[in-house]
């Protein structure tokens, strides 16, 4: 499980880890954006909260995760962006007890707030391959899209606008940060310095996992 504020690099690191370990990646943010794109009732319900940088109600998100976790008994999962509240963590505990599946690692990616604001403000994503670029730190240089082979079709997420960014960071502190104690108390938490470069962060993740 990846824990950490928006912009800490959870999605980027998850892409790499899932490829290396053959994990099934469950990102509630990606699942919700897909519902919004398809205009489903769930997507319509979620969109307002997402655009404002607020959390979608627990029942909606838990239901979405339950459908996936129950669907495939054999898979090993990488949870990215879930749980985000104590209520979601308790629902997850109950689902996993039912499946007799343990949480093996909780990786907390820490990044100072000023750096998160910088990262989220300049972030651009490709609509087709999902790759993430940054105006200053990782500009798009015209390389071929991993999904289409053409040029990447870049867009800025609505919730990466500055008012929504501030709200998302406040929501993280108020509602998600308490999960650090929830999992820390169970000896599951590994702290990762997310301010380092991508390769170094990945190295820390790999050794945290190997260390048990
Ligand atoms: P993310 O891509 O993880 O930053 O998520 C984007 C947005 O989707 C968040 O700001 C929330 O509005 C919503 N969202 C994603 N995951 C959750 C969750 N576990 N609980 C509630 N809302 C979520």
Q: Helix fraction? A: 40-55%
Order of helices and strands: EHEHHHEHEHEEEHHEH
Strand segment count: 8
Bound compounds: adenosine monophosphate
Largest sheet: 3 strands, parallel
Structural class: alpha/beta
Largest sheet, spatial ordering of strands? 1-4-8
The rough form would be described as globular
| Mean pLDDT across residues | 93
Uncertain stretches of 5 or more adjacent residues: none
Number of domains as seen in the coordinates = 1
Radius of gyration: 17 Å
Describe this structure as you would to a colleague.
- By secondary structure, this protein is α/β, with parallel strands linked by helices.
- The chain has a single domain, classed as Rossmann fold.
- Helices cover 50% and strands 14% of the residues.
- The chain has nine helices and eight strands.
- The strands form three sheets. A three-stranded parallel beta sheet has the order 1-4-8.
- Helix 4 packs parallel to helix 5 and helix 6 packs across helix 7.
- The longest helix has 15 residues.
- The chain is globular and about 45 Å long.
- The model has no long low-confidence stretch (mean pLDDT 93).
- The structure holds adenosine monophosphate (AMP).
- Adenosine monophosphate (AMP) binds next to helix 2 and helix 3.
- Adenosine monophosphate binds next to helix 2 and helix 3.
């Amino acid at each position: 499980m990846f824990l950490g504020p928006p912009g800490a690099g959870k999605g980027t690191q998850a892409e790499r880890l899932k490829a290396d370990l053959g994990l099934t990646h469950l990102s509630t943010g990606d699942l919700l954006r897909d519902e919004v794109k398809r205009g489903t009732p769930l997507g319509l319900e979620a969109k307002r909260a997402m655009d404002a940088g607020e959390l979608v109600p627990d029942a909606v998100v838990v239901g979405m995760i339950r459908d996936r976790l129950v669907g495939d008994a054999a898979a090993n999962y990488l949870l990215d962006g879930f749980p985000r509240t104590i209520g979601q963590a308790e629902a997850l505990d109950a689902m996993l007890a039912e499946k007799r599946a343990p949480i093996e690692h909780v990786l907390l990616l820490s990044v100072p707030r000023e750096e998160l604001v910088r990262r989220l403000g300049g972030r651009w994503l490709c609509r087709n391959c999902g790759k993430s670029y940054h105006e200053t730190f990782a500009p798009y240089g015209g390389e071929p899209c991993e999904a289409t082979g053409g040029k990447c079709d870049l867009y800025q997420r609505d919730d990466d606008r500055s008012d929504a960014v501030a709200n998302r960071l406040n929501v993280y502190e108020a509602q998600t940060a308490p999960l650090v104690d929830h999992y820390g108390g169970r000896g599951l938490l590994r702290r990762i310095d997310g301010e380092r470069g991508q390769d170094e962060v990945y190295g820390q993740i790999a050794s945290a996992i190997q260390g048990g």
